[in-house]
Amino acid sequence: MLTILGFAMIATFLVLIMMKKVSPIAALVLIPALFCVLVGKGAHLGDYVIEGIGDLAPTAAMLMFAIVYFGVMIDVGLFDPIVRMILRFAKADPLRIVVGTALLAAIVSLDGDGSTTFMITVSAMYPLYKRLNMSLVVMTGVAATANGVMNTVPWGGPTARAATALKLDASDIFVPMIPALAVGLLAVFALAYVLGRRERKRLGYLSLDEAVEATTTTDEKVLVGTGDGKNTTGAAKRTGGTGTGTGATGTAGAPTKGATGADEDDDEHEGFHVLDPNRKTLRPKLYWFNAGLTAALLTAMIMQWMPIPVLFILGAALALTVNFPHMPDQKARIAAHAENVLNVSGMVFAAAVFTGVLQGTGMVDEMAKTVVSAIPDWMGPHMALVTGVMSIPFTYFMSNDGFYFGIVPVLAEAGAAHGISPVEIARASLVGQPLHMSSPLVPAVYVLVGMAKVEFGDHTRFTVKWAALTSLVVLGAGFLFGIL
């Protein structure tokens, strides 16, 4: 019964948020509370929630201060050169922009932290997508999938968990998997190319004259579209001009309804706001201080000199104090990023209710036992394949801790009975990570969709199929190279 209720709870949650019947925060709280009562353990709901909050509190603290830190770095202009560089490469071509998104996300993912990756990637790419009316779910989907592949680095989490659970060396798991993961990363770039071509076809090939120069309220930008085989030129002022690109984009200078279906009614200064050289928050004289501080912060995270929440708390405090020494300016910067902080931290604590009920009621354990017991004996010699396939849905429907410490050891025992080494099981267990990074149980995904202003349901509908396909590519490459 617990197994059925567990799967029913997850299915109900996913269906409701994808149909946009309930907001993600409400769904993460109300649905598990209802199922906790149905299980007959409603009296323990408070204990489950408090335990879940206790487990996720460090993550919530890290996200809160990380958003403030990177928000300040955006304000002071740290990422302006990155945006300009990508813009020069992209030349306002949607195809190049999407490929650039995948490349940037993959590179930044080397720090091993998904939240940091998404904050930097969205900070750099969001202005381009907004200005050219590109689909924001393309950005979130490509970034999440690229990060999922790179999340398998030993310091990223899953590999370390698999090594700990099976008492193996992390390098023995990860190093042989590099060829398969490289193929997976190539699959992400291929996906970015395909999605970029689709965006180029929808919007036309666009060239943005003097795009590297910042726009102001008096700047005029020229869009030249050739998507329909005809050149259409129109100049649009940043504050509601009347020029047009191709027919697919609508009015170039006015806010339009984005591809995600959400109203793009943000501040009038949306667009290349990040590149505005006249914004009062710029601190050009402190550029190298901020770059050095960020490099030191990322180095400290990779080297694990301190817990990540502590690093971001210290980093945010230092960044605010040095860049904005006056109290009113500090308050203004915190207020400017308060919406993102509240949205993301609220989502994390709401997710604590979901995970707390799922684990506290024993539904996760029963789901795992049921699935493992359903594996027929004849599949024993193929347990590596079974593990790889199972990792795709299971790392989506449950936390990495639940999968690697609850299910992988059982699969390893079953494989050992048929001569399958634990290290092969461990490698196969990494296959599902591209999809895992879009799981509603991963706090980082709420940073991604929150900063990109994309509905979680829209992101899920768009990304799941591509991320699952990427996972299957990694699995196939693993068998092709004899790794699994």
Question: Secondary-structure blueprint of this entry?
Answer:
Elements: H1 2-18, H2 24-39, H3 45-76, H4 80-90, H5 94-108, H6 114-131, H7 136-150, H8 158-166, H9 170-203, E1 206-208, E2 220-225, E3 232-237, H10 287-303, H11 308-323, H12 327-336, H13 338-360, H14 363-373, H15 383-397, H16 400-416, H17 422-428, H18 433-436, H19 443-452, H20 456-480
Antiparallel strand pairs: 1-2, 2-3
Helix pairs in contact: 1-2, 1-14, 2-13, 3-6, 3-11, 3-13, 4-5, 5-6, 5-7, 5-9, 6-7, 6-19, 7-9, 7-19, 7-20, 8-16, 8-17, 9-17, 9-20, 10-11, 13-19, 14-16, 15-16, 15-17, 15-20
What does this structure look like?
The chain has helices at 2-18, 24-39, 45-76, 80-90, 94-108, 114-131, 136-150, 158-166, 170-203, 287-303, 308-323, 327-336, 338-360, 363-373, 383-397, 400-416, 422-428, 433-436, 443-452, 456-480, and strands at 206-208, 220-225, 232-237. It is mostly helical and 484 residues long. The chain has a 3-stranded antiparallel β-sheet with strand order 1-2-3, with no helix packed on it. The longest helix is centred in the middle third of the chain and has 34 residues, at 170-203.
Strand order of the largest sheet: 1-2-3
Low-pLDDT segments, ≥5 res: 208-274
N-to-C CA distance: 34 Å
Largest sheet: 3 strands, antiparallel
Estimate percent helicity: 55-70%
Structural class: mainly alpha
Quick check: average pLDDT? 77
Number of strands: 3
Radius of gyration: 23 Å
The count of helical stretches stands at 20
Q: What form results from the Cα inertia axes?
A: globular
